[in-house]
């Protein structure tokens, strides 16, 4: 574990004041991580228009912080299709494969369900094997379409660790954030599946 990782990150809603720290986190990603998340070059530092779309989407955005530093970002935004929310997340290099991405996706998914989403959309590079495994494992009933190097998965809206949406679980995931920050998890551990790089 990196010595700066003293405890689990805190997750909270994101906003414009997070622009500089999010830019710092994105700049610290490897080229491959940036490509898997954005499917294109984003610049270094990333353009302010991109950062604003990530922090203030047509849905909601969340950041995981350790001290003042942002170590993760997740969001959902309305996508084409009836009540379809696109989910996406990106995690700082030192915090990848430890469960933070799944935790953040769960929070974003719960918030999207609470807002009325009935389906989720994930757009994943065909080369991103860890994210493909994660989507297939956690949303096994998703349908998939291919467009060149991208795979688009559409799944019924439910939390990644629940067989169906349950109001009490959705409330637990979203209600805690109304009061501010929540721990990302009791214990983060190495994981085989990573965040969907959408």
TrEMBL record:
The keyword Transmembrane applies. InterPro entries: Acyl_CoA_acyltransferase, GNAT_dom. The keyword Transmembrane applies. It comes from the Bacteria. Gene3D superfamilies: 3.40.630.30. The chain crosses the membrane at residues 104-128. Residues 9-176 form the N-acetyltransferase domain. Keywords: Membrane, Transmembrane, Transmembrane helix. SUPFAM superfamilies: Acyl-CoA N-acyltransferases (Nat). This is Ribosomal protein S18 acetylase RimI-like enzyme. The lineage of its organism: Bacteria, Bacillati, Actinomycetota, Actinomycetes, Propionibacteriales.
């Amino acid at each position: 574990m990196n010595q700066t990782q003293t405890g689990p990150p805190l997750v909270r809603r994101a906003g414009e004041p997070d622009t500089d720290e999010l830019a710092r986190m994105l700049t610290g990603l490897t080229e491959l991580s940036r490509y898997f998340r954005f499917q294109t070059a984003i610049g270094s530092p990333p353009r302010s228009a991109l950062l604003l779309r990530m922090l203030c989407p047509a849905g909601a955005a969340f950041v995981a912080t350790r001290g003042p530093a942002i170590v993760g970002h997740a969001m959902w935004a309305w996508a084409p299709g009836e009540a379809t929310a696109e989910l996406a997340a990106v995690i700082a290099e030192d915090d990848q494969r430890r469960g933070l991405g799944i935790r953040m996706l769960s929070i974003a998914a719960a918030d999207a369900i609470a807002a009325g989403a009935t389906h989720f959309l994930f757009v994943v590079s065909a080369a991103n094997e860890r994210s493909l495994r994660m989507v297939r494992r956690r949303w096994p009933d998703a349908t998939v379409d291919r467009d060149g190097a991208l795979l688009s998965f559409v799944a019924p809206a439910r939390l990644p660790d629940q067989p169906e949406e349950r109001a009490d679980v959705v409330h637990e995931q979203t209600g805690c954030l109304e009061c501010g920050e929540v721990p990302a998890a009791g214990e983060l551990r190495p994981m085989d599946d990573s965040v969907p790089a959408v």
